[in-house]
Structures are given as C-alpha cells and as structure tokens.
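Researcher: Here's a chain I'd like modeled. Treat it as a single chain, no partners, no ligands.
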Amino acid sequence: MELEGSLEEFSVPEILQFLSLHDANGVLRMKSINESVGLSFKKGKITAAAHKGEDFFFSINEYILRIGRISEDELEEYQKEAKESNVSVIHLLLQEKKIENPELREIILFKIQEIVDEALTWDSGRYSFEAGESLYSSSIISVELDSNALVMEGMKRIDEWPQIRDVLPSDSVSLQSKEKPEIDIELGDNEKRILEQFIDGITVGELVKITGLGKFLTYSAVYKLIEIGLISRVEEEKRGDDYIDKELIQKYKVSYTTLFKRIVLIGFILFNLFFFFQFKLDKLNHFIRDVKNTVQRVDK
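Model: Modeled as a single isolated chain. Structure tokens:
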C-alpha cells in the first residue's frame, strides 16, 4: 500500500486512523516547512518515531542525559565505546544498569507521543507512506502503540495549547519566581521538576531543554505555575513608563517594502481625488457661468 499527498487534503489524524484501520506495515513520512517526522507501523500499530528540525526534540540518548541518569562525560565515553564495539549506546546503558528496561520503555513511549503531538499541529505539508519499511529495526526494546489512542491524547493537548500560548507566546519568554503564591495547591511531578531547575531569568525554551519533559509538558507545567502564582513572566513585573511591549511592537511591525507600497497607494488615491474635485469644480464654474449668461439674456 503506497500513499502520497498533501496534508491539506488528508489531515494527520485521518492518515493515522486510516493506517491503523488497514493494519499497515511501513513508514509514514511527513514534512512541514523545516520539520519532518517519521512513524513506523506494524500491523497498524506505531512502533517507533523520528523527528528532524526543531531542536527541542532530543534523541533517547540525550533525553537519558537530561533526566540525570548519566553525565555528559559518561555519554561521551559510552558513545566512543559503542562506536568501537559496533553496538548502540542504549545497549551499553542497559548492560551497565544505568537504566532499566521498564524505564527505557516509558521513555520510548513518551518520545513517540511527543512527536505525534507535534505532527498533529501541522495543517500543511506533504506525506508519503513507504510499505515494508521500518525505523530502528534493531532496537532492543519493542513497543506497539494504538495510533487512535495517541491521536486522542494528542488532540486533548492541542485543545489546551491555544490557552497556554496566550500566556507563553514564544520560547524566549523569560520567567522569575514570586514570593507569595496566589493559590495554595499541591504540585504535580512536572511542576516540581520545573522548580528544581528554575532560576530567575530563565526562558521557557531553556526549561524545555534542561527538564526532559518535552515541549508540551514543559509549557503546560510552566503555565500552571504562573496560574498558581509561584512564577511570573519577567515583563509582567517590569511594566512601567519606559516599558515597551515587544509583542505589541511585533504585532504592528511593518516592513519598509509594505510601508512604501502603502505610501504609494495613499498618494495615488489623493492624486485621483484631487483631479476628481478639480474636474467637478471646473464643471461647476461652467454651470454658474452659463446660468449668469442666461439670466443676463432674460433681463435684456
């Protein structure tokens, strides 16, 4: 079964559901702007995922590093040993008991969900399905995930995303702690992990990179901490007479080319209005002059 087409005509959820329904075996590849995603299917189940583009999506090796199971020096040593021994870093980590099978499986499941979540936000791009192909065919841990369940969880997250983006519109939003929380509430594990890594002035994007929670879960946890009142956006604390809202500037920012086009358009309109009224005035003068001549003849 070979498939190829546009995401505008066949959406990501529809593609995933179609492949699940037909017990597909192969690799679904999708590309949107500067990002690409690959999903491996076996009898309609998703068994692996890969992402290229945005730097918030770490490899499993990098993820294990960021959650503190190994240090950077250890990762370098394992990578060197893996290359010399012609085995994977994961194989060595399992062998050295740096990570156990159940935890590695949970990491793989998390990474697949994270990549599917990202693909579900795409409304444009191209897709193709290569029957018989597979990703990470030599992987030590095998997983099989129901794509419909992944889509349902992903769509739930997407529904929350606009509200989060209203508060955290970009990765460069800086944050700082607040002394008195506005709401007394028990924190979840994700919120606790954010606070463990938190320093004043850190950006949301930096938290995504160091917490290992992934993009959505990091944004969601930061949003909850802001709602509770434990942290705030830096600009909210620094508004004053000299404050310039960068988002407002960006919203109304106009390029020189656009500005020139608008000036030319306005000039053209004024030019035409001038001649229109000039023409009307000339006709009015002629009319008044004709009326005067007619009145003078009648008087005579």
